From TrEMBL:
Substrate binds at residue 355. Its EC number is 2.6.1.44. GO terms for molecular function: alanine-glyoxylate transaminase activity; L-serine-pyruvate transaminase activity. Its cofactor is pyridoxal 5'-phosphate. PANTHER family: ALANINE--GLYOXYLATE AMINOTRANSFERASE 1, AMINOTRANSFERASE CLASS V. GO terms for biological process: glycine biosynthetic process, by transamination of glyoxylate. InterPro entries: Aminotrans_V_dom (IPR000192), Aminotrans_V_PyrdxlP_BS (IPR020578), PyrdxlP-dep_Trfase (IPR015424), PyrdxlP-dep_Trfase_major (IPR015421), PyrdxlP-dep_Trfase_small (IPR015422), SP_NH2Trfase/AEP_transaminase (IPR024169). Belongs to the class-V pyridoxal-phosphate-dependent aminotransferase family. It comes from Mycena maculata. The modification N6-(pyridoxal phosphate)lysine is found at residue 201. It is an enzyme of class 2 (transferase). Coiled coil: none annotated. This is alanine--glyoxylate transaminase.
Length: 385
């Protein structure tokens, strides 16, 4: 069998869409682990370590529930099924496509949902949030920390502070699929009750893992519900004993976890939490990489979707095409230079812009030269336009 020292992934174009992202050799190698029993003595401590390291990444030492299973779209379902009873009110802060998808999920489980919509390129203001919370009692407030469709960053710390001040019983739910491990996040210190994320973006693992961390406050709300949980597979009643068992070093069974992906996740988390650059420096490196991309775009006359720097994510950038230019004029040319970027996603403007991801090893491993490759390709493609 090939050793890790010998293993190199196949040559390929540089993947800089906003997820999936480039994956390190050691993570792909771990994903190729021999098939294992999910209750074997070898696997149990790997699973337990992942639970502990996940909490470290989101700065949530007090969180009693870390949970991961297959498929990213199960994240909103876990919130809708466990924390909101039919007929209860939910407030969704909308900064792009994923505000709509969270709304649809909540409504499917019987919640009464109100949206606060920001203009494209902006996040919802604290004044609008405060006004909505004073007008109605909400069980939860949800927001997308970085909306992948717009590259808009919402101020998680400020949102949580506003909710805590105006409506302290309301739970704060952060969709961190496109932010965890690339944007600064302090779950405990900021008062976030649930963080949802997935494996294929800043965490640097192949797609397939849905990850959730819940606070003690969120668990109490779950335990006090009077209506039955509206999902069998997503029920925390099923998963809490499983996670507690694995973290204590004991096997347990409800459903088979994606064992090989968890080995890959363990490899990536070990790098993020225990090796240089450590988490705080990773945030700084993401900011530096982001600035390089954004400065290059600005020099080329490319306008960001983000209306001002306060709304601009550090893990990705969304850029309008110049007048008369389309995705067909740009994305294939970037592809010919070995760079895979993404087209638009927001339905109202999807043909007018494109997106570049700069998360994970692309941002933090400067020896790879990924950011330089992207900026060089942007200059070559756009300089003549």
């Amino acid at each position: 069998m090939t050793s890790l020292a010998e293993f190199k992934q196949a040559p390929h174009k540089l993947l800089v869409i906003p997820g999936p992202i480039e994956v390190a050799d050691e993570v792909l190698y771990a994903n190729a682990h021999p098939s294992m029993s999910h209750v074997s003595p070898d696997f149990v401590p790997v699973f337990g370590d992942c639970l502990r390291m996940t909490r470290h990444v989101v700065s949530a030492r007090r969180a009693p529930l870390s949970n991961f299973a297959s498929e990213k779209s199960s994240c909103p379902r876990k919130v809708a099924a466990n924390l909101v009873q039919p007929g209860e009110n939910a407030l969704v802060l909308h900064s792009g496509y994923f505000g709509d998808s969270f709304t649809e999920c909540l409504e499917t489980y019987g919640a009464k949902v109100d949206q606060l919509k920001a203009e494209i390129g902006a996040a919802v203001s604290q004044e609008a949030i405060e006004s909505a919370l004073k007008a109605k009692k909400y069980r939860i407030v949800t927001f997308t920390h970085v909306d992948t469709s717009t590259a808009v960053l919402s101020d998680a710390k400020a949102i949580a502070a506003t909710v805590k001040r105006v409506s302290p019983d309301t739970l704060v739910i952060l969709d961190g699929v496109c932010s965890v491990a690339s944007e600064e996040l302090r779950m405990d210190a900021w008062g976030i009750d649930v963080v949802l994320t997935a494996s294929q973006k800043g965490l640097g693992v192949p797609p397939g893992l849905s990850i959730l961390v819940a606070s003690p406050k969120a668990i109490k709300v779950f335990e006090s519900r009077t209506a039955p949980v509206g999902s069998y597979y997503a029920s925390w009643k099923k998963w809490l004993p499983i996670m507690r068992a694995y973290e204590s070093g004991k096997p347990a069974y409800f459903a088979t976890p994606p064992v090989n992906l968890i080995y890959a996740y363990h490899a990536s988390l070990t790098t993020i939490t225990k090796k240089a650059p450590l988490l705080e420096e990773r945030f700084q490196l993401h900011r530096a990489a982001s600035q390089q991309i954004k400065d290059t775009a600005a020099a080329l006359g490319l306008k960001q979707l983000a209306l001002n720097p306060a709304f601009a994510a550090t893990g990705m950038t969304a850029l309008y095409f110049p007048a008369g230019v389309t995705a067909a004029d740009v994305l294939p040319k970037l592809g010919a230079k070995g760079i895979i970027a993404a087209g638009g996603l927001h339905a109202a403007i999807k043909d007018t812009y494109f997106r570049i991801g700069h998360m994970g090893i692309t941002a933090v491993d400067e020896t790879r030269g990924d950011i330089q490759r992207v900026t060089t390709a942007l200059n070559e493609v756009f300089a003549a336009k």
